[in-house]
């Protein structure tokens, strides 16, 4: 009888622990950025290496990560914008996954809320590690169960609690288990792509520092690959004296023969267009000529982003590929041999063919600065963003556009922007953002660099001051009405948009006609209910101060 009671008690304990672990796993999953995984469905058409390209780099990185003679290591893979870093990171992640080496991945993306900030990094990595290294699962669950507030702590404390601690515990338990007679190779590679697309130089330095500290001082059994542009904050961090024993660098330059890979890419993709394009019957058998391929390779200047943008442009299903390629070949670079000259010419050509360029720049301006601002305002430790600022329907409500206008206006830009088909999902912005389709995604960050640099973009330049002024006016319109998420965004963003803008006559008129006392009363009511408007309430003095400053400046 006593033995039965003991067995029943043990079974109850195990069942209770399983329930607790599942609850902790659910808490962790709510804090991740699902679009950051290398194989996430939200990363529609992610960059890929063509077959037989960059094979030497792929095998070298995989061999480094599979090295059994050392416990840990870090590699920095860097190169200029458009040289194919993300394609390589994607290919490395895929190959490492197939060989059982991939522990986790995180792909930063400048234009995507949740993917352009470090706030979700550790939770996302820990979630993947719990799946790729099952031995860590219970320790990660116990860590969340014992401290549910861990997600509001520093990134360093999250790393220690959710990743370092569980990995070392699992390792110690494994080595202490006498039944483990043979050594076990765990997944050990973490791939972090686009560190330069994480907002803030301090955040970039911080990530490098805490990850390297975990490797050097804790001897965590991981290999960490970080790819980025060689921006000064990141470069200086990797050049630190403390990292010299564990760091390797991989420079994506001409030594790795990018021209040969780009040439293969062009031949492969043009062959695919000839076989699969809806208007393939109008394509000559011999197309394109080898000298045209060579011309495109030279124009690429080692930048895969130029090559992929050309292919996406030529492959438009609504146009004849031969005519589209001829249009590309007629583009003349008039600025000489400067970085990104050919890419800028291509971007300008694509925008020149747009019918409603004013509408395009208005939508892209809102997309860039609404998503960037809201990523900064998102509370630390929060789960997935509650406001779908990249969703076409959200932007249509915010900018007072008709339903379907965003997809229609951006329709000619499929080669540089991914726009989801909102007809597949009738869910409005007032619904659950987790059920929404993927938001609008700028395919490559070089387009953001182009649009926000007056010297490169020319008449397509997006002026941040003017965009913030227009978004401030949009907030005034939507603050006391509109759909739930537009309403919520307006409450949180009005003051910040004002402070980053200049006081135009139109904005002044909107603010003068705005019932500020009603807003203050409404905000206080929401605050008493624990709503999301605490920041708006605390920002009111800043709004008044900004107004006084702007009026004083305009009086001179």
Account of the protein in words:
This protein is mainly alpha-helical. The chain folds into four domains: 254 residues, Rossmann fold, CATH 3.40.50; 73 residues, no CATH class; 105 residues, no CATH class; 81 residues. Helix content is 54%, strand content 6%. The chain is built from 23 helices and seven strands. The strands form two sheets. The chain has a five-stranded parallel β-sheet, with helices on both faces. Helix 7 links the parallel strand 3 and strand 4. About 4% of the residues have low confidence.
SSE inventory with pairings:
Layout: H1 2-29, H2 55-65, E1 73-78, H3 85-98, E2 102-107, H4 121-132, H5 137-146, H6 155-176, E3 189-193, H7 201-218, E4 223-228, H8 232-238, E5 247-251, H9 258-276, H10 290-300, H11 304-314, H12 321-329, H13 341-352, H14 357-377, H15 392-398, H16 405-409, E6 417-418, E7 441-442, H17 445-451, H18 454-457, H19 464-478, H20 484-499, H21 505-513, H22 516-528, H23 534-554
Parallel strand pairs: 1-4, 1-5, 2-3, 3-4
Antiparallel strand pairs: 6-7
Helix pairs in contact: 1-5, 2-3, 4-6, 5-6, 6-7, 7-8, 9-10, 10-11, 11-13, 14-19, 14-20, 19-20, 19-21, 20-23, 22-23
Keywords: Repeat
InterPro entries: NPHP3-like_N (IPR056884), P-loop_NTPase (IPR027417)
Domain Nephrocystin 3-like N-terminal: 63-229
Task: Give the key terms.
five-stranded parallel sheet, Rossmann fold, mainly alpha, 556 residues, 23 helices, two-stranded antiparallel sheet, 4 domains
Mean pLDDT: 82
> Radius of gyration, rounded?
26 Å
Q: What is the percentage of strand-forming residues?
A: 5-15%
CATH class category of the largest domain: Alpha Beta
**Residue share in helices?**
40-55%
| Biggest sheet features | 5 strands, parallel
Tally of DSSP helical segments: 23
CATH fold label of the largest domain: Rossmann fold
* Distance separating the two termini: 93 Å
